[in-house]
Amino acid sequence: MLASLATATAGMATGCSPTWEVGGAYFPAWLICMVAGLFCALITRFVLIRTGLDPWVRPRALAYPAIGIFFTLFIYLIFFSR
């Protein structure tokens, strides 16, 4: 029941989103921004490890997903704000 509700909600949420064509298929912009945000968060983690600041990031289970969400929303805001 919960899985079908989540699928229906995700299907309705993509209807108003701008789309990009990637390899002949159309992807919603939020999905592409989410992947870009993930990569930005991974790069941020790598930079923090290389500079020695990673031990100061606490709690990691909340900090890195928050960084990923920040980058996702920032990228969406830059490229898709009207």
What topology does this entry show?
Layout: H1 2-13, E1 19-22, E2 25-28, H2 29-51, H3 60-80
Antiparallel strand pairs: 1-2
Helix pairs in contact: 2-3
Structural class: mainly alpha
What is the typical, i.e. mean, pLDDT?
A: 84
Strand order of the largest sheet: 1-2
Q: Portion of residues in helices?
A: 55-70%
Stretches where pLDDT falls below 50 for ≥5 residues?
none
Oligomer: single chain
Largest sheet: 2 strands, antiparallel
Describe this structure in words.
The chain has 82 residues and is mainly α. It has helices at residues 2-13, 29-51, 60-80; strands at residues 19-22, 25-28. Strands 1-2 form a two-stranded antiparallel ribbon. It is extended and about 40 Å long. The model has no long low-confidence stretch (mean pLDDT 84).
